[in-house]
Amino acid sequence: MRAKSIFFSILINLFIFSSLPILHNLFHKPVSLIEPIQIDLVKPEIKKIVRKRSKPDKLKKIIKRRKMIKPELRRRIDFELTPDALSTEVDLIAPYVTYDLSEVDQLPCLIKYIKPEYPEEARVKGIEGVVQLKILIDREGRVAAVKVLNDGGFYEFGRVASQVVKRWRYEPARIMGMPVAVWCIQSVRFELEKR
Questions:
Q1: Is this prediction's pTM over 0.70?
Q2: How far apart are CA 184 and CA 173, in angstroms?
Q3: DSSP assignment of 5-24, as one string?
Q4: Residue 165: pLDDT band by 50, 70, 90 thresholds?
Q5: Which of 55, 86, 111, 149 is most buried by a 10 A CB count?
Q6: In a domain, 60, yes or no
Q7: Structural domain total, the chain
Q8: DSSP state at residue 83
Q9: Cα–Cα–Cα angle for 124, 126, 127, nearest 5°?
Q10: Buried b vs exposed e over 85-96: b needs ≥16 C-beta within 10 Å?
Q11: Is 88 within the bounds of a domain?
């Protein structure tokens, strides 16, 4: 039985290998039918540049001008992973990288609060409300951008709140000890004093 199976496998292999040239001729174009591509070789012309010598007076003026031009100083980026070095280099690499509150190790903390002025029209009408703002706190703790999400039921509340929040200061959010810019939601409450 084993000799029979070996014999049949040898027959199948012989059939496959003998049919390969026939299959190759059926599906491939013969080499003689392939058209040759003509390539033209072009020799480039080389022109000699002749520079005229300047007069001595002109040379002195050119040298004086070159001395007056100060070279631009380029800042070298140091890739050591120290918080001080990395926080200053982040400004050069990606000045507009922002994070969400879920991505930071230390949340921002309000350190300078300025009370918003109550709009006179809302005070007269007895309107109170809570304004929801989306704010961007930058690496220095300043409010860089403000977007009013909910004006608290009175149009003036949103305008007043967004103006006053820009003057607030925060302890910036931090990742691995480095200050980072972060987006967060800030509420500003407008309440009338109870008498």
A1: no
A2: 10
A3: HHHHHHHHHHHHHHHHHHHH
A4: very high
A5: 86
A6: no
A7: 1
A8: H
A9: 115
A10: ebeebbeeeeee
A11: no
